[in-house]
Specification:
Elements (H helix, E strand, L loop, with lengths): L5 E4 L15 H14 L3 E6 L4 H9 L9 E7 L11 H8 L4 E7 L2 H8 L3 H17 L3 E7 L1 H7 L1 H14 L3 E6 L6 H12 L6 E5 L6 H10 L4 E4 L13 H11 L14 H11 L17 E2 L2 H9 L17 E2 L7 H7 L9 H16 L8 H12 L6 E11 L7 E10 L5 E8 L2 H13 L10 E10 L8 E9 L4 E8 L2 H20 L16
Parallel strand pairs: 1-2, 1-8, 2-3, 3-4, 4-5, 5-6, 6-7, 7-8, 9-10
Antiparallel strand pairs: 11-12, 12-13, 14-15, 15-16
Helix pairs in contact: 1-2, 1-11, 5-7, 6-7, 8-9, 9-10, 12-13, 14-15, 15-17, 16-17
The structure holds acetyl coenzyme *A and pyruvic acid (PYR).
The site of pyruvic acid has 8 residues, from strand 5.
Protein name: Citramalate synthase
Catalytic activity: pyruvate + acetyl-CoA + H2O = (3R)-citramalate + CoA + H(+)
Keywords: Acyltransferase, Amino-acid biosynthesis, Branched-chain amino acid biosynthesis, Isoleucine biosynthesis, Transferase
Length: 537
């Protein structure tokens, strides 16, 4: 029968010790809610008494109607020479009002004598007193044995003495922490197996990722008998981070058939959870993150796409939907016809070999000139329309001009003029607009000229602008590639432009962005071949 493995999330405490991570109270509450919805067993909300934000969190989290998770207040053993009743840290843990308290204590004799600078007996007393005191106040106590593996390697008798003190004082679990993240899987599994022989309460595991094996270590500890895994979403945390609970949960549920996150129900939402936490922690998504990254099931090589089209499992270790992710096929110079077929299934076009080859040849040719379609799918869609003959320009450029003037102003003044003809033979519009920079000015002028005809462009805006110098084929001058991300209330799309001139590259990407929006709103992206006017690229 599947064994229930408890997932203990410390994103809000250990995760927030990661460089650059700074959650607001509201962020913490939102993450708590989502973790609870997915079925996490424990959520460590913060370090009790450390700062006002954590104090406010512990007060406001009580207002949440949590269905599943226990909130834990984290803190350390009492200070040396102070009774537990007088210890500010233990009092702060009590005043959070949480049912569960997680106490961290020292295991490694080196830390006791050199960092805390107390004698070995006093440290054991600090552990016993702290756990016992919280227990006597009616709290469930989880004990985090800091530096457990380093301590055990240095002095196994003393390490065991410390955790047995916690056990005897009433802790419900001993969590073995690889605090410095320096232990490798075989050694870690062996130690967990040995320690179990001496401890009568369950063991948990808390790994850091300094050797890039925190997830592997957590899985090995479970194999060796640990019943709780502590970690953070996306592995955020101090130094190289903690075990990524996203991968831990997916591996335990899908690969090892263990019962996590409400019988695996929560596992289907791991991608959503991962991106939500990235968003709130203001960090960039890790595209190649296992299971949930945007590239985790992205196929680029032509031979792979050919195989995946026949049998998805030929190049996928699991069905991406099991973790709420999706399969993606990328188009690039490494594509074969299979990539193009897969990418154009949404188009109501004839997928004959000749057309597929024509599209592929053009992609390879353009990528050789510095274009890149794998991250600019809207430009690829327009390219397909052009080659399939279903494209009719929404406007025609007569000319554009951009000027930047500095004389007499604090900030340079940027102005763009565009002259366009709407549709094939529609009115001519000549407009001028200012902007924060050349691209913004061009965008403003384009909108001014186009919105009288295409009112829906008012609902579109630019989200991101990236430019990079590229190495195109030998012998040509340096080129720049501009990728523009645009959005409206429903979608986000990316377009690309390449030129020796950054303004022209931006113009090309802007024009694609606008045309894609217009085609999209008309439901025309991918119009059938037979309905299209023949207008070759
Ligand atoms: C492995 C981990 O992740 S443990 C968690 C680490 N996280 C944090 O430290 C974040 C939150 N920390 C804080 O807000 C502050 O450090 C506080 C409030 C806990 C303590 O602040 P301060 O009192 O100013 O002490 P400071 O941080 O400089 O030093 C830590 C003190 O705790 C003592 N200490 C460290 N670990 C323990 C322990 N397990 N039990 C008892 N005392 C401990 C140290 O000896 C030191 O006291 P000393 O200066 O008297 O020797
Ligand atoms: C408790 C903890 O965060 C650690 O030892 O790494």
């Amino acid at each position: 029968m599947a064994m229930h493995i408890q997932l203990y999330d410390t994103t809000l405490r250990d995760g927030s010790q990661g460089e650059g991570v700074n959650f607001s109270v509201q962020d913490k509450l939102l993450i708590t809610k989502m973790l609870d919805d997915l079925g996490f067993d424990f959520i460590e909300g913060g370090f009790a008494g450390s700062n006002e934000k954590d104090t406010e969190y512990f007060s406001r989290v009580q207002e949440l109607d949590l269905k599943h998770a226990q909130i834990c207040a984290f803190g350390m053993t009492r200070r040396r020479g102070v009774g537990p009743e007088e210890d500010a840290g233990l009092q702060a843990m009590l005043s959070t009002g949480t049912t569960c308290c997680t106490v961290v204590g020292k295991t490694w004799d080196l830390h006791v004598t050199e960092v805390l600078r107390v004698d070995l007996e006093e440290n054991v007393a600090m552990i016993r007193d702290s756990v016992g005191f919280l227990k006597s106040q009616g709290r469930r106590v989880l004990y985090d044995a800091e530096h457990f593996f380093d301590g055990y390697k240095a002095n196994p008798e003393y390490a065991l003495e410390t955790v047995l003190a916690a056990q005897d004082a009433g802790a419900e679990i001993i969590v073995c922490c690889d605090t410095n993240g320096g232990t490798l899987p075989d050694e870690l599994a062996e130690i967990v197996t040995n320690v179990q022989k001496s401890v009568s309460i369950p063991l948990g595991i808390h790994c850091h990722n300094d050797c890039d094996v925190a997830v592997a270590n957590s899985l090995r500890a479970v194999d060796a008998g640990a019943v709780q895994v502590q970690g953070t979403i996306n592995g955020i945390g101090e130094r190289c981070g903690n075990a990524d609970l996203v991968s831990v949960a997916a591996n335990l549920a899908i690969k090892k058939g263990q019962d996590v996150l409400q019988g695996g129900e929560g596992v289907k939402h791991l991608t959503e959870l991962s991106r939500y936490v990235y968003e709130l922690s203001n960090m960039n998504f890790r595209s190649n993150q296992p299971f949930v990254g945007r590239s985790a099931f992205a196929h680029k090589g032509g031979m792979h796409v050919h195989a995946v089209n026949r049998l998805a499992s030929s190049y996928e270790h699991i069905d991406p939907e099991l973790v709420g992710n999706e399969r993606r096929v990328l188009v690039s110079e490494l594509s074969g016809r299979s990539n193009i077929v897969a990418k154009t299934t949404k188009f109501r076009i004839d997928h004959d070999q000749e057309l597929m080859k024509k599209i592929l040849d053009r992609v390879v040719e353009l990528e050789n000139e510095g274009w890149q379609f794998e991250a600019s799918e809207a430009s690829f869609d327009l390219l397909v329309k052009k080659i399939a003959g279903t494209y009719e320009p929404k406007f025609r450029q007569i000319h554009y001009r951009v000027s930047v003037e500095t004389a007499g102003q604090k900030e340079p003044l940027t102005e763009a003029t565009v002259k366009l003809q709407i549709d094939g033979d529609g009115p001519i519009r000549h407009e001028v607009a200012e902007g924060d920079g050349p691209v913004n000015a061009l965008d403003n002028a384009l909108r001014k000229a186009l919105i009288p005809t295409y009112g829906n462009l008012a609902g579109m805006h630019l989200v991101d602008y990236k430019v990079r110098v590229i190495n195109s084929s030998e012998g040509t001058a340096a080129r720049v590639r501009v990728v523009i991300e645009s959005a409206d209330e429903h979608d986000v799309w990316s377009t690309v432009g390449v030129s020796e001139n950054v303004i022209e590259a931006s113009w090309l990407a802007l024009v694609d962005a606008i045309e894609f929006k217009l085609y999209k709103d008309e439901g025309e992206v991918g119009a059938p071949l037979e309905e299209a006017a023949a207008s070759p690229e």
